[in-house]
Design goal:
With about 400 residues, the chain is an alpha+beta fold. It has seven helices and 27 strands. The protein starts with a helix and ends in a 14-residue tail after the last strand. The model has no long low-confidence stretch (mean pLDDT about 95). Bound molecules: ligand LQZAQKY5 and molybdate ion. Ligand LQZAQKY5 binds next to helix 3 and helix 6. Pathway: Cofactor biosynthesis; molybdopterin biosynthesis.
């Protein structure tokens, strides 16, 4: 049985970035740019006023004759004579002959004249041409994630469309005669197919596009048929039917369709029966059916693959050191990915387990936000420091008491 790290390495080595596509800049959020973006011009394009006030030549203060008005959007081409000032609005280009701006609050206007309440510093409140970015600067390097600030910067640089790595389409197949779709009334021996939707949500959260294929009945023929239906996607994620049961047909179906199982079983709990295959050159992840095993193995193997395919360079979740709040024991022979609840206490992270760690118990994930790896046959005492993979960082958001 291979280790988690061996399985990750074997999978990630085979994942190559998808093609790129041209999208409107406004659709670029959270996508990766394959190329560097170089400033085609200086921003700002001209020296301009940072304040609503008066522009003048610094040598002319303190009393100045007001000779014009310059709102943002207009320009003054004629040099402003010494001893004169222009009433200028924020963003308007500094007129020739002027080098300094004083805000409106720092002057007194008397008829046609403006008097400074205190001497102004030369060049004050002037934003210089190119002080944000200069023409020729590499503003957004290749491989960057486009955040809202990069979207704004691309627009400021005159871009309307840009190339980004394509979103990965991930087909999701549930297997099992016991499954009902959400919304069906409970019936004996049946349970709701929750995995298709938790996995689809994980795909969306990673920036991919899920294609939910539905449920394959527990026959080889049905499993083959449903797998074939998913082969238009870039990757296939199957859940259930991958263990040693009499009705576990997933591996056989992949092979019958001409796929190659590259490995089966990873030394981990939950998620041991995971199989990784390639079929028609596409990665196929056959995840276990237990709801927690499916989600945890998605986290470890599918999410980083998806991110790599979409051009990301940082494909792993953040890891923090946290103080364990209670004793944690792994009596088993596999490394145990224990679900934990992490909190931040001013200067340190604390973590406690989410209770019963059965891999069928989805609440072990809903109650938590992290995963800690316990070595086989090991005990961690309360108060020791453990590494925790953060599955989300919502708990670090600030809170504010506001009335409803
Ligand atoms: N004799 C052995 N039995 C089992 C072993 C083993 O090594 N020897 N491994 C166990 C482990 S570990 C796991 S994990 C499960 C995985 O089995 P499968 O991948 O074949 O999954 P299923 O048997 O189809 O389902 C397991 C469990 O999960 C429920 N399930 C399945 N699909 C869904 C879904 N889409 N939504 C919600 N719940 C789902 C299913 O009803 C079962 O309860 O095998 C152990 N057995
Ligand atoms: O690997 Mo299984 O997920 O322990 O239940």
């Amino acid at each position: 049985m291979i280790s988690i790290e061996q399985a990750q390495r074997a999978i990630f080595e085979q994942i190559t970035p998808l093609e790129t596509e041209q999208v409107p800049v406004s659709h670029g959020l959270n996508r990766i740019t394959p190329e560097s973006h170089v400033a085609p011009w200086d921003i700002p394009a001209a020296d301009n006023s940072a304040m609503d006030g008066f522009a003048f030549c610094h040598e002319s203060q303190p009393a100045l004759k007001i000779v014009g008005f310059l709102p943002a959007g207009d320009v003054i081409d004629e040099p402003v004579p010494a001893g004169c000032a222009i009433r200028i609005m924020t963003g308007a280009p500094i007129p020739p002959g002027c080098d300094t701006v004083v805000p409106i609050e720092e002057v007194e206007v008397e008829g046609e004249f403006v008097r400074l309440k205190a001497p102004a510093r030369a060049g004050s409140h002037v934003r210089l041409r190119g002080e944000d970015i200069a023409r020729g600067d590499v503003v957004i390097p290749a491989g960057s994630v486009l955040r809202p600030q990069e979207i704004g910067m691309l627009c400021a640089m005159g871009k309307t469309t840009l190339a980004v790595y394509r979103k990965a389409r991930v087909a999701i197949l549930a297997t099992g005669d016991e499954l009902l779709e959400p919304g069906s009334p409970p019936s004996p021996g049946k349970l709701v197919n929750s995995n298709s939707y938790s996995l689809a949500a994980q795909v969306v959260e990673a920036g991919g596009e899920p294609v939910v294929l539905g449920i394959a009945a527990d026959t080889l023929a049905a499993t083959c048929e449903m797998i074939s239906a998913g082969m238009d996607a870039d990757m296939l994620v199957i859940t259930g039917g991958v263990s040693v049961g009499d009705r576990d047909f997933v591996k056989a179906a992949i092979e019958q369709l001409g796929g190659e199982i590259q490995f089966w079983k990873v030394d981990m709990k939950p998620g041991k029966p995971l199989a990784f295959a390639s079929l028609q050159g596409k990665p196929v992840f056959a995840l276990p059916g237990n709801p927690v095993a499916a989600m945890v193995s998605f986290e470890l193997f599918v999410r980083p693959s998806l991110l790599k395919a979409m051009g990301h360079r940082r494909i792993l979740r953040p890891v923090v050191n946290a103080l364990l709040q209670e004793r944690a024991v792994n009596k088993g022979s596999r490394p145990h990915l224990v679900r934990g609840l992490v909190s931040w206490h001013g200067d340190r992270y604390l973590v406690s387990t989410t209770g019963n760690q059965s891999s069928g118990r989805l609440s072990s994930l809903t109650l938590g936000n992290g995963l800690m790896k316990l070595a086989p046959e090991s005990t961690l005492e309360a108060g020791c420091e453990v590494e925790v993979v953060l599955l989300d960082r919502w708990f670090e958001q600030g809170e504010m008491e506001v009335s409803q």
